[in-house]
Structures are given as C-alpha cells and as structure tokens.
C-alpha cells in the first residue's frame, strides 16, 4: 500500500479493516503498510476488536510492519537488518524501507508470553541472476540469531511475514534449521486455499504475470512459522489462504494472498527441555551452503568497493591536475588561456560530482563488505561448534 | 587507536597485550580498537592466555569492539544503534564507526551462561550545548531494550564500556533503572584507583585538558555494570582503575583509564525470581525526563528535515527555471544569448549540487525523525505500563 502509487489503496485498506473486524483473529501481522495514515485509520476502525496495536517505524519510508492484537502488547523491539539492498537502486525501493523485524511481546490468556515476529526480507527481483541473495541470506541469518537470542524466555515463538523466498531456498532452510521453527503449512492438519499454499499467484490482478511465468501455480513466499520453547506444545490445526477477490468484491485484498493459521497451544506437564539446540545433521550442510553464497556476495562487494575507490582516486587526480593547470595560468606561466573556460569548468564540476558519488559508494560498499564478512565469520563459528558436537 | 592518527599507537597496543597476558583476567572487553590489524596482533599475542576472542565489525570503520576470553564464546550478536550522529559531522567521526553493542555469550566454568556486553555510546563533544544528547538517549534506550530482551536466559549479565555519560546523567539512570543493572563502582567492597573512580582524568597525557576544566578530578565515563538473572548472586569484591602511566613506562595505556572488577558469582538455593521487573517508583520520572529530551531532539530533527526539504525544492525550482530559460533560448524565443554561458553553467551545477546534498540530508533527517519518534512512542508505552502497575 504505497500512497499515490498502489492501485485502489484506500478501498483495499477499508476492505482489510472490515474483514479483520468480522473474522476476529487473536493476532494480526501486517506488512507493507507504508503509509502511517493507513495504520492510523485501521487502528481507529479496529479499536473495539483489536484494542492493542503497534506500528514499527524505520528507514526513510518506514518498515511497513504493524501488529494488531486482542491481547496486551507488553513490549516491542525493532531490529533493522544491517544489509538491505543498495540506496542507488531507486527502482528497487528496499533500502529506503529499512526492512526490519518487529518483536511485539504479548501475553495471550493468562500465562503464555508469546513472542511474535512480523517481518519482511529483501525482495527477489530476478531469480536467475539474484544479486540480492547474499543480502537476503545475511537477513535470514540475522533474523535467526535475533530469534535465538530473544526467544529464550518466551513460551511460544510465532513468526509471520513475507520472507521473499521459495520454501526450498537456502535462506528458509537456514532459518528453520538454525532456530527450530516449524512451517505451519507443512504441519497443518487441515489446509484450505490456493494450491500448494501459494501466496503469490498469477490469478491475482495486482501481481506481475511475467515474473510468475516459470511458476504457473504461483509461489509460496508468505509464511507462518512457530515453535514452543518451554513447557508448551503448539500444533497447527488449520491453515488457510485467501483465494483471489475478497468476498462479494471484484478485487483481492492485496497482491499477496493472506495466510491464516489456527494454532492449538497447550501447556505440557514437564518442560520440554532445550528445543533450541537443533541436532539436525543436515544443518551443517545448510550453513555451509549459505556461507558459500555469502562469500560470493562478499567478493562482489569487495570488487565494487575497489572499483568505486579507484574511480574516486581518478576523479581526485583529475581535480588536482585541473587545479594545478588553473594555478599555473593564474601565476602567468602560460601567457594565454590554454583551455576554453566553459569546458574547463564543466570538467571540474563533473570530476567533483564523480568524486562525491564514488566516495559515497566506496563508503557504502565498505560497510557492505564488513557486514558480509562478519556474517561469514559468525557462520564459520557456528560450523565449528556444530562439528565439535558429537 | 586510530591508524596513522593516534599517538604511539603500536607501542600502546603492545603494552596492553603484555599487561593482559601478565594479569590473566577471565574476560577482557576492549573499545576503540579501530584497526583490525591491531586486533589480529593482539589475538596472536594473547592466544595462550585468552584462547577465545571476537571482533565486531560494523559501520564504515568498524565498531572498535573486541572481546578476549578465557572461556569459550558460544555465540555473538551485534546490535547497531539506529541513530548515531550525523554523517556530515566529519570531525565527530561517530557516524562512521557504526557504534553498536556486541553480545558474546560465553560459558564461564561449567554452568553459568554469561552474557557480556561490550559497547560504546555516542561521544559528548560539548556538555553545555549537547546536540547529541537525544541520540545518546535513543542509544541508551535501545541498549536497555536489547538487554531486557536478550538477557532472559542468561545467569549473569555483564556490561562494560565507555558510556560517554556522567554517573548522574539521565541516560545512565534510564539504563540502570530500566534494566536493573548495578554499578560496580557503587557496589564495590574495596576500591583502588583514581579518585571517584574517574576514568577520563586531566593527568593523562592523551586527554584534552580544556574539556576537563570544569571537572578538575576528571569524569567517570567508563563503567562495569552487572546483574544476576536466575538463581545466581553477583557481588563486586574489588574495583580498580589504572592510574596514569603503565608500570615502568612513560605513557599510559590509553586516553581513558582501564576499569578492572573482581566479581564473586555464586549459585543460590532457589531462583531469585524475576529481577527484571524493577519496581523503582523513580523509574517513571527518569523515563519521563528522557522522553522530554528525546522530544526536544525530535523537534530539532523535524526542523532540519523541513529546512533541507525546502532547500531541495528551491534548488529544483532554480534548475527548472534554468532549463526553461535554456529551452527558450534554443527555441529562438530570445534572439540573443541573455546570460553569459559560463555563469549560467556554474549556476546550474551549483543548483544540482545543492539539490543532491539537500535531498540526501532530507532523507537522513527523515530517518532520524522516525527513530526519535519511535523511541518516544516506546517510552510512552512503558510509562503507561508503569502507571498501571500498582
């Protein structure tokens, strides 16, 4: 829902509000609510059925994440991924949104502190030549680390959002393997909705048909993941997706189908023990695979850092050369003006512009290299620990 | 320790390495190790006495944070503060460092998972007119939230670093009040070192004397804070600071005095209960005070966002006007060249430069406004919760 750009935005926001009111969920996690005004409108409309809500602000535009809940939200925390695309890729607006994970801790019923995460990872713009894969893997890794570190005192962890990854992608396997989260679609006793649980389907009038050509059924990129931490068990009884147009309307709610899960949360007799330590032997392979991809991204970023640094140095040299020439002329070394003044000035401005841009790019790619390097290191640390474990 | 800039850097790094080897601490948290080469040198030197270490990479330059430990480091997580000064304040390099809090979880002895945090907050450059106070408060708040969310499964939380705040400052009171962390200096049974525990003292040959004129004894800005979470108790038996030159040398280790604490960690019979809920009635006042300061920063940021936006619009208008004039001339509306070509071009480049810079500033201040606003909101949520509690 981008203001002025998204089609039939207000109508759809109104429709979403009406449906949420009718359905009466316990917890609603929304993504891509880019306009804070839309959030405020929803908040007013939903005040009676969802008295508690929170909007996560971040980046230039906002995170687009918001939460509506029947139960009190005790606390919130926003973690912004350290890498999120490139500011100069204006047509892929991800950098400006400050993609993040929002953590509202809420207390459902009397006893269970629930940790729910609403999130969105970097979009995939071209599957064959996916330049953002390393960034998305860093995000998946940071997300997994964030969950591991924050979930320890919760009873149930619930994650919902647009992960922008196919179910078998390395990022999903990494996230699930390293946190032990289970996929509601795979675990659901009963399923109803689009085939294969797809949420980005060609039938939807807001999706880009050409993108979905290789996937005639659509793609499943929106997930509900969950796990129980302490003395609780969670079971997914039913999973549903919306299928096309909203009931009685000509348009769907959004370009993605919504995912709805009915979870059965039950207190067990004794604590289930440390469920965080995932002893999956395949985990090491997944981490290795992810680390390789991050390494590829690291080398590309190093290359870009080098190129932009070289460009900055060249621009600086040109400027110095021009300054020397100008000084020479002023000092009367050359009696005549050797260059036409106008082109001399234009060249100087051009060099200055290139210098500023290239320096900015160099700084940006330096940060990118640092974060990719750091993720590679962390993954290596985990691999070593996994191998040492019997 | 900034490469090429800091005085007698390599000598001091060598000295620090030697002393750490001799003293044989359990855990060492270092700040402002800006050069990764220095970290690598230290790592090699300390391999026998501190087999485990980690360097936290972030920002353009790095976080400067590193950890050396006698016990295995199980996991690490880096949280970058969402606000950290301004990229255009080149002389105050904070923005480029990506100030952050590093969390190495380690296991000391057999049972106690220890959460130690190494960190540095934004520097205070002018106490009377402290433009960075709102940023530092946002950092203190984010730090407190980060500790609350990550510490729940730890037995002991240990925080060490340069907080860049005086002991009675609102940021420190906020951090301590909201997390329940205790100040090792206040709790220590035995103290030895600079008077009042000061770590930035005028006697140190690397400090800026003029900055310390209002504080003849110095300032205490480096802290060791701690708390026990579960069935443990922590007591600070001894606190020491270094006092001036390293033993047998003419120079001190650094511009700040080092802080060393001997902590006695003991397992209790029964769990101490939820020590996170701090029922301090003064807490609401501290949060209110901090929220007021954040509000002041918010209004300043909004003003700057508005000014830069207006500047960008003006530059754009000038460019459009020039384009119209140029097109008019080309179309032959004016038969003669009305402006000298050179100044016309210069003006256009100037306008373009201003447009780019002002747009960048506008985006940056938009992010700043979002983060300050979000912190203000979170503080309000906490205040409401505090007031509802009996």
Give a topology summary.
2 copies of one chain form a homodimer.
Chain A: H1 9-23, E1 27-30, H2 36-46, E2 52-55, E3 66-69, E4 73-80, H3 94-97, E5 100-108, E6 112-120, H4 133-150, E7 156-162, H5 170-179, E8 182-183, H6 184-187, E9 190-192, E10 222-228, E11 232-241, E12 259-267, H7 283-330, H8 341-388
Parallel strand pairs in A: 6-7, 9-11
Antiparallel strand pairs in A: 1-3, 2-3, 4-5, 5-6, 7-10, 8-10, 11-12
What does this structure look like?
2 copies of one chain form a homodimer. By secondary structure, the first copy, chain A, is an alpha+beta fold. Chain A has 8 helices and 12 strands. Chain A has a 6-stranded mixed beta sheet. In chain A, a hairpin with a 3-residue loop joins β5 and β6. In chain A, α4 crosses α7 and α5 crosses α7. About 2% of the residues of chain A have low confidence. Chains A, B: It comes from Leptocoma aspasia. Chains A, B: It holds the Pfam family Exo_endo_phos.
């Amino acid at each position: 829902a981008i203001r002025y750009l998204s089609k039939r935005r207000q109508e759809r926001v109104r429709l979403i509000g009406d449906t949420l009111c009718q359905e009466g969920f316990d917890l609603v996690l929304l993504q891509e609510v880019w306009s804070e005004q839309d959030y405020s409108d929803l908040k007013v409309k939903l005040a009676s059925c969802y008295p508690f809500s929170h909007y996560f602000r971040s980046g230039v535009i906002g995170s687009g994440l918001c939460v509506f809940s029947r139960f009190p939200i005790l606390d919130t925390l926003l973690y912004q991924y350290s890498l999120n695309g490139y500011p100069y890729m204006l047509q892929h607006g991800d950098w400006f949104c400050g993609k993040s994970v929002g953590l509202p801790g809420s207390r459902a019923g009397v006893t269970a502190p629930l940790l729910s995460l609403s999130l969105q990872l970097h979009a995939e713009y071209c599957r064959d030549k996916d330049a953002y894969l390393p960034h998305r893997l860093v995000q998946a890794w940071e997300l997994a680390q964030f969950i591991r570190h924050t979930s320890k005192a919760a009873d149930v962890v619930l994650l919902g959002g647009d992960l922008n990854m196919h179910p078998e992608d390395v990022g999903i396997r990494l996230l699930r393997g390293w946190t032990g989260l289970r996929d509601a679609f795979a675990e659901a006793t009963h399923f109803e909705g689009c085939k294969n649980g797809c949420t980005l389907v060609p039938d939807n009038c807001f999706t880009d048909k050409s993108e979905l050509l290789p996937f005639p059924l659509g793609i499943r990129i929106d997930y509900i993941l969950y796990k129980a931490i302490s003395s609780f068990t969670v079971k997914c009884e039913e999973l549903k997706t919306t299928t096309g147009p909203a009931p009685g309307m000509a348009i769907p709610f959004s370009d993605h189908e919504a995912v709805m899960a009915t979870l059965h949360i039950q207190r067990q007799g004794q604590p289930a023990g440390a469920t965080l330590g995932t002893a999956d032997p395949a985990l090491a392979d997944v981490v290795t695979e992810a680390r390789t991809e991050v390494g590829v991204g690291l080398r590309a970023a190093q290359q870009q850092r080098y190129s932009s640094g070289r460009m900055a140095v060249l621009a600086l040299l040109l400027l110095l050369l021009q300054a020397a020439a100008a000084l020479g002329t002023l000092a009367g070394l050359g009696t005549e003006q050797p260059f036409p003044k106008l082109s001399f000035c234009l060249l100087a401005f051009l060099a200055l512009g290139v210098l500023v841009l290239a320096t900015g790019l160099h700084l940006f790619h330096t940060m990118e290299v640092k974060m990719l390097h750091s993720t590679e290191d962390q993954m290596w640390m985990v691999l070593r620990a996994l191998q040492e474990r019997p």
